[in-house]
Structure formats: structure tokens, C-alpha cells
Amino acid sequence: MILNGIGVSSGIAIGNTFLKEEPRSNSGKTIITDIDKELTRFEEAKCKAVRDLEEVCQEARLGNKEEAAMIFEAHRMIIEDLEYIESITMLITKEHVDAEYAVSKTSEVFEALFQNMDNEYMKGRAADIKDVSNRLISALRGELSVALSLLSTPVIIIAKDLLPSDTIHMDKRYVLGIVTEEGGNTSHATILARSMGIPAVVGVPNIFSLFQQNQIVALDGKEGKVSINPSIDELKLWQQKKVQYDEYIKKLSALKGTFNITRDGVHIKVNANIASPNDMDKVIENEAEGVGLFRSEFLYMHSKELPSEDVQFEAYKKVLESIKGKVIIRTLDAGGDKEIPCLDVSKDENPFLGYRAIRICLGRRDLFYTQLRALLRASLYGELGIMFPMISSLEEIRQVKELLKEVEQDLKNEGIPFSKDIEIGMMIETPAAVMLSDLFAQEVQFFSIGTNDLTQYIMAADRMNPKVAYLYDTHNLAVLRAIKMVTENAHRAGIWVGICGEAAADTSLIPFFLNIGIDELSVSANTILQVREKIQQTDTREYSEEIIG
Ligand code: PEP
Ligand code: MG
Question: CATH classification of 258-548 is 3.20.20.60, yes or no?
């Protein structure tokens, strides 16, 4: 039987299933008579859960898994969240129910709250609430949490929903693949699986009625296909697919040590997009020439408070120190689909056309000032470029530059050193920035075209809305012409231009980008070698101008 889900982490996996037991549903409510005793039980369980979380957090940090550490940190915050705790203790005191029931009831309410949010990221937080609540219930029952780290043979994990703590405890040697019913592209477990290179398919309905323990399963983490109990002939086909995929990856790694140069000798820089300093190992391993886009909002996403100047400084410094080439750090791009709880910005009716990115930064100068200070201080540790997202008016970029000057002056006054050679650039993501690109080119030293947003704004088609996906297409002539116009205006003014949206890794567009003279492509670390392969196959002169009229 073939099931269809959403492929979220590429690769082919074939192996026996390991059904991760559903967290036991609560055995029902027990009416208690000794309220104080129950509150003490809860308090003790809470302390144990907090201690456990501190331990796993520490463990993750020691293992250099900062992303995971931040997730556990966030879980600790949930356990200590006043509203969450109050809901549990109120149920115990007012309804005289046992602590396990109170936790599970509270969890249901909070999970539903998050699940009903429009934003995919916030929806994903329901899994965190569930994870935390299960941990509390286990602590109340005195259970040891069954860790997937105890696996000793390679399996494909089948789970209703994989929790971040499950994923981080997995021993990669024993996890061939993952299939889940819930979860999406932006859930933490998915992010972790992808970063560990484990093929994964999510969104497969009715997992527990379809799968059994220890059954043969094959999955394609790109196509989102899962085959249960494949026949001998089908199994052979899956094995061939796996061999082909492994060979393709091996073939790509043979490109290491070669250059991003076309058949007719044109060099194009291939940089990496990152979201965290922890991504740098993969960036180096795949030979990015530099970092073309560090989405700094990641630093703001998992914490309850705005990251301090020092926290940001350390993160930027770490990235700058780890690579020889240029590192372009984009200032906070909050809003749109990226909600940042610690920012406390109310949700707009139309978030992509509302208060986001540079608009928030210029409105919240306190936090923008802190970020710019951290960036300037870190500039001593490598070759830094700073770029600004969602610019749509000349006034905005001028205000940004003015604030930057103010920060420079303050640092000088305080005797704090910073580099004099920081490149200042802007993202081209709005039609206004395209139309004024000749004027913007006088203001900055480089452009980076954010095709993800540029496509949605040019086509007036929300990048999150599947109903208008037929219009949301970077291949559309209107978008291609905009990219060409920006490139020409940049070059006329003598500045360089790159692409950092997902289109940069679209091998069908690479000949076009090369032909119009794009100077840099910035892509996720996993796709760098695929992009290199395409560049090496391309002759920039062969591209037909007719495509864009
Ligand atoms: C883009 O819009 O193309 C881009 C790179 O920014 P983000 O995807 O973070 O909005
Ligand atoms: Mg964008």
C-alpha cells in the first residue's frame, strides 16, 4: 500500500517500523479529597520536570546542539508559565481532580489554542505543550520517559507526532527514517530531523490504524511517499531508488574541491543561507564561499525575551569566525508568517502587507539599535555585510543608514572598536524596490533579491495560500523581468547583486541568472553542490533572451 504525505526531509529509507507508542491517554479523572497533598505532588513533579529539562538542555549544549538547547529552554519556560500552572492548580483546587488529569486537561486547552492560530509556526507550538505536559504526567506517575535514544537496531519511526525531545534524543545511527501523522515543514521535530539528514514524511493520516510494529516500510522523503509491506518486486524498486539517491549524493560530493564556474568560464559565488550559528558545520562541509543570508530572526524566535546585545554579538561572532568569506547578516525580519512572541507585536489583518521587517525595526528603534550595535561589534571577527529586509522607500534606507551612523558614533565615543569595511546592502523584495532600484543602487553597496517575497508581491499572490499557488511562480515573466531590471540597475551603478530566495537553488532558473549576470546565489547548505553541478553544466551564452521578451 502506498500512502501520500508531505516530504519534508529528502532521502530514501527502507526498514522495519518502530511504532512510538502514543502517549497514554489519561486514565480518567480521579476525585481527590486531600487538595494540599495533590498540590504538593504536582509541585514535586514540576520541579523534577524542570530539573530534567535543565539536564537535557545542558546535554544538548555540550553536544553543540544549540537549536535543541533553545527548544528545551522554551519547554522549561512553558512549565513555569504562570497561566499554564494556574490552570492546573485551579483544576485541582476547584474541581478536586487529580494532578495527572489537571495537566492533561490543561494541555488540551493550550494545545487547541495554538492549533487554532493561523500561523504555521505558532500551530507547531502545540507539540511543545504536549511534550511538556507528557513530561509532567510521567513525572507524576514516577515513570521514566522512554527515550528513542534507547533504540539499538536501525528502524523507521512511526509516530502520531514526534516531539522535539524525541528527535533530539534519537541516535542517528538507528533512525533510518521518520513518518508522522502530524507536524509540518516548520515544526521543531521536522527542523531537527532535516538538520540531522534523516528522511522524513509528515501528514500521513491514520498512522496507527495503518502501521504495525516491525513491519517493512519504504519512504521517499522528497516525494512524500510511504510504502507499507512492499512486495518483493516493489522492494527491489525501492532499493534501486535508494542506490540511485545515494549514488547521486556521492556523485555530488565528488564536486567538492571544484569551482562554481560555467562551461564558458564565468564564476558565480555560491553562498549559504543559515538560521543559526549551528548551521555552519554543514556550510563549511558543502564548501559555501560565504554566508549570503543569515536570517537573524531565529535568534529572537525561541526566547521569551529579546536577545541581548551580548547574546547577539556572540552568535554573529561565531558565524564570522567560522568562515573565511563574507557573512551577510540580515537584520530582524519579523512579521508576515514569522511571529516572534517576545516582540509583542499584535497580528495584522493582512500580515504580509502590514507591520513587518524594517517597518518594525524603524518603529522599535530600541531593539534595532541593540542589533546594529551587536553587529558592528562582531564585525571585527570576519568579513561582515549587513542587509535590510522589505525596504520599499528611499526614506527607509536613509533612516537605517542614519541610525547606523549614530551607532558607529556611540561606539567610537565609548572606545569600542569595529570594522570600517562593512558592506551595507538591502533586500529587493517589493515591487517598489524594483522600480526604484536605480536610485537604491546609489544608497547601498549590494542588492540581494528575495524571490520568495518578491514573487508574492509582484504576483499579488500570498506565498502561504495554496489556492493562489498557480500564480505564485518565480518563473512568471513578470518576476523574471523584475530580476533582470534590478540586475541591470545594480551593475550600471557598479554594485553587485545576489539572489537569496529559494529560486536561487532552482536549477531550471540558474542558466537565466547566469545569463543576466547575477553575481551570487545564496542557498541552503544541502543544495550547494546541486547548484554547483548546474553551474558547471551551463554555458551562459546558450540562454535564449526570448524567454523574457
Ligand atoms: C525572500 O523573501 O526571498 C527571503 C529570502 O526572505 P524570507 O524567505 O526570509 O522572507
Ligand atoms: Mg523575505
Answer: yes
